[in-house]
Amino acid sequence: MKKIINQPENYVNEMLEGLYIAHPDMITYTADDLRCLVTANKVEGKVGIITGGGSGHLPLFLGYVGKGMLDGCCVGGVFQSPSPEQVFNVTKEVDTGAGVLYIYGNYNGDILNFDMGAEMADFEEGIRVETVVAGEDVASAGPSAPGEPNHRRGVAGIVFVYKCAGAAAAQMKDLDEVKRIAEKAAANVRTMGVALTPCIIPEVGKPGFTISDDEMAIGMGIHGEAGIRNGKLEPADMIVEEILNKILPDIPYVAGDEVAVLVNGLGATPLDEQYIVARAINKRMEAEGIKVHRYYVGEFATAMEMAGFSISVFRLDEELKALLDAPAHTPFFKQF
Amino acid sequence: MTSEFLVKMLGEISAIMQENKEKLIALDSVVGDGDLGLTMTKGFAVAYETAAKGEADAGRMLYNAGKAMSGAAPSTMGTLMALGLMGAGKVLKGKTELVDTDLVEFAAAYLDAVMTRGKAKLGEKTFLDGFHPGVEALKAALAAGESLAEATAKAAVAAEEGFKAAKGMLAVHGKPAVKGEASREMDDPGACVAMLIWQAIAKAAA
User: Any chain B CB within 8 A of the CB of A119?
Assistant: First the structure.
């Protein structure tokens, strides 16, 4: 293991302390718990939006707390769910009477802990909580039939859900309306990725799985979950082609559609390579007659030092486009 | 009936889990990782201890018990049982005096919370398949004018039948689902927990 850390067991809390030192104008914490992050700029009467999940994914989850996006976030240890108590504490702190929306990724541990936190908020404080669970990784499971549960994992595409719901809440829309927009955003985003190297949980000290030097894992999840296939590394254009061949038919995205595209580095892939990916995506989108309204390129949801990237495609209509374009200002997402 | 009955009931549940700890470990080892016996004994023991602290509001008492249980037994099954207690607490909130049919309210809310939060349906070889027949039997017996002791005894019998019927079902959730068709040969540990809960309720009402 080659990491710039101190004691592995202090990895998460020292990272959090650094964040609070660097961004005191935007974020703080509640309940004397570094892992219960809340906005430093609470807006009275606004629907509060909370997310959370395991650490090790920066900028996910806590990097999106700020103006125009989220109000609170609770994180657990690396790849571990936050506790119900933490969810409850953050809920109490961000609620200003308009209710709270939970938006998080589709993982069983997170679902149970957030549900439990919502029960506590309801029983002890009478706070109304609604939930939208995002799951858009097309490599993780097939599409779900109407009325059936979604088995797909939530990955980088959740940033679009945060952005649109956050903008709606900033416009002082009510909880039902913010939830509707979050659900609509979640229904219109699809993601798939590729990993080139594994990542190491600091307290474990060695990778939980291996990918050969000359291989890639197509469709791998951000905790190293198995994807679609492992194979020889191919040129960027071919990898992008394979990923879009899976993403585009899924909704489907068709000629005439307008979309936003998010290219997400998984942690160790340079921006140079991410822009080579963006170029390849654009070629394909032009060929398909799909108009790309905006590109976001950079790190949005990482797996520490994992190399690789993911592509998220977000289908827009006028409503989602306006919300996506609205300003936001958080430690890791700035748009003017 | 008062919230004292619910405390007694949780005491019986805690005791029956302790008596059946090895059985649950053995059942769970066939289909899962074998920790069910540990989480159920620990979880319900803490739930009982918390409930016994003397909270008069039946709903708040159940909620507190569930909350304590979730901290003590943070596995999926432990969390679901905790959510069951919390869900039941919500419907009984504010009550200090209970009538027999409040036990139906308790059981229906418990079932509903586990079903909703666990995102499972009846017939999928889970806790629900043991618990649901007990709720229905209790409701029918009380509606027919039977005593709480008679009604809960019938619920326990129905839950046992539910547990036996779950054996032939195909598992679709959690680790048992990995066994596929072979899961039809196996007892479901969750349904066994449900049967034990109804046996304990009957004992508390006897």
Answer: yes
- Domain borders along chain A are 8-188+324-335, 189-317
C-beta atoms of B67 and A115 within 8 A: no
Active site residue A329: no
Query: A with B: how many residue pairs have Cβ under 8 Å apart?
Result: 31
| Total of domains in chain B | 1
Q: Which amino acid is at A235?
A: P
pLDDT in tens, A150-197: 999 999 999 999 999 999 999 999 999 999 999 999 999 999 999 999
Which of A84, A123, A149 lies at the smallest CB-CB distance from B70? A84
Determine which helix (DSSP H) or strand (DSSP E) holds A335, and give its type and residue range: strand A334-335
Report DSSP letters for A33-97, one per residue: -TTEEEESS--TTSPEEEEEEEES-TTTTGGGBSBTSBSEEEEEEET-PPPHHHHHHHHHHH-SS
Which helix H or strand E contains A295, and what residues bound it? Answer: strand A291-298
Of B86, B150, B34, whose CA–CA distance to A122 is shortest? Answer: B86
The domain A8-188+324-335 having CATH identifier 3.40.50.10440: the answer here is yes
Q: Render pLDDT for B118-160 as a digit per residue (tens, 0 to 9).
A: 889 999 999 999 999 999 999 999 999 999 999 999 999 999 9
Write down the CATH superfamily of domain A189-317. Answer: Dihydroxyacetone kinase; domain 2 (3.30.1180.20)
pLDDT at residue B2 tops 90: no
Could you count the other beta carbons within 10 Å of the beta carbon of residue A252? 10
A137/chain B closest Cα distance in angstroms: 20
| pLDDT of B174 strictly over 80 | no
Provide the domain limits for residue B98.
3-205
Binary contact (B83, A115; C-beta < 8 A):
yes
pLDDT tens-digit profile of A114-130? Answer: 999 999 999 999 999 99
Tell whether A85 lies on the interface with B, counting CB pairs under 8 A. yes
In Å, how far from its chain's centre is CA B25? 17
Q: Which residues of B touch A113 (CB under 8 A)?
A: 79
